[in-house]
């Protein structure tokens, strides 16, 4: 879809102009560190927003904690699908929270988180996989939260954990 292509293009340009490619994101470990830093920064900034209300309609968030031992045993494709499920849930939570948070500081941070999470979602959906395109319908383990800050905590944990380890594993094969 054109909006999806626009987001993916802007994400790839954001990665760095000139040499932007999904492979570069995986092979240049400084880039994932940059995204971890941005996730931490967004989490910090939303924590500084004044009087963020509790969400009337709870956000459904993926449980992103994982056992490194179990994670290592999974195939790249199953890791990718799990991360896609987590990201899809996070994007939905951010969109739902955006509709409930009218305070400018919180709404601005939610918009930024939505764009970042959606960009990773689009990137992983379009990355050249043998197994074909991603199909929705997964059901990750989830929890309902009414605090806006928990959306940011979950995103940071996902980027710092599963996504970082996933890119690190892909780099072993792609970046020789």
Automatic annotation (TrEMBL):
<dbReference type="GO" id="GO:0005125">
    <property type="term" value="F:cytokine activity"/>
</dbReference>
<feature type="signal peptide">
    <location>
        <begin position="1"/>
        <end position="20"/>
    </location>
</feature>
<dbReference type="InterPro" id="IPR003978">
    <property type="entry name" value="Thrombopoietin"/>
</dbReference>
<dbReference type="GO" id="GO:0005576">
    <property type="term" value="C:extracellular region"/>
</dbReference>
<keyword id="KW-0372">Hormone</keyword>
<dbReference type="GO" id="GO:1902035">
    <property type="term" value="P:positive regulation of hematopoietic stem cell proliferation"/>
</dbReference>
<keyword id="KW-0325">Glycoprotein</keyword>
<dbReference type="InterPro" id="IPR019767">
    <property type="entry name" value="EPO/TPO_CS"/>
</dbReference>
<dbReference type="InterPro" id="IPR001323">
    <property type="entry name" value="EPO_TPO"/>
</dbReference>
<dbReference type="GO" id="GO:0008283">
    <property type="term" value="P:cell population proliferation"/>
</dbReference>
<dbReference type="InterPro" id="IPR009079">
    <property type="entry name" value="4_helix_cytokine-like_core"/>
</dbReference>
<comment type="similarity">
    <text>Belongs to the EPO/TPO family.</text>
</comment>
<dbReference type="GO" id="GO:0005179">
    <property type="term" value="F:hormone activity"/>
</dbReference>
<dbReference type="GO" id="GO:0070374">
    <property type="term" value="P:positive regulation of ERK1 and ERK2 cascade"/>
</dbReference>
<dbReference type="Pfam" id="PF00758">
    <property type="entry name" value="EPO_TPO"/>
</dbReference>
<keyword id="KW-0732">Signal</keyword>
<dbReference type="GO" id="GO:0038163">
    <property type="term" value="P:thrombopoietin-mediated signaling pathway"/>
</dbReference>
<keyword id="KW-1015">Disulfide bond</keyword>
<keyword id="KW-0964">Secreted</keyword>
<protein>
    <submittedName>
        <fullName>TPO protein</fullName>
    </submittedName>
</protein>
């Amino acid at each position: 879809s054109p909006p999806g292509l626009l987001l993916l293009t802007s994400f790839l340009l954001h990665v760095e102009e000139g040499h932007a490619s999904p492979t570069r994101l995986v092979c240049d470990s400084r880039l994932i560190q940059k995204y971890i830093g941005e996730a931490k920064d967004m989490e910090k900034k939303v924590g500084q927003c004044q009087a963020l209300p509790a969400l009337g309609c709870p956000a459904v968030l993926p449980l992103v904690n994982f056992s490194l031992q179990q994670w290592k045993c999974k195939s790249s494709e199953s890791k990718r699908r799990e991360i896609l499920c987590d990201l899809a849930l996070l994007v939905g939570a951010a969109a739902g929270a955006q509709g409930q948070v009218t305070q400018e500081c919180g709404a601005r941070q939610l918009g930024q988180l939505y764009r970042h999470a959606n960009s990773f979602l689009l990137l992983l959906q379009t990355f050249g996989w043998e197994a074909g395109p991603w199909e929705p319908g997964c059901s990750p383990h989830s929890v309902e939260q009414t605090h806006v800050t928990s959306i940011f905590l979950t995103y940071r944990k996902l980027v710092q954990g599963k996504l970082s380890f996933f890119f690190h594993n892909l780099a072993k094969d792609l970046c020789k």
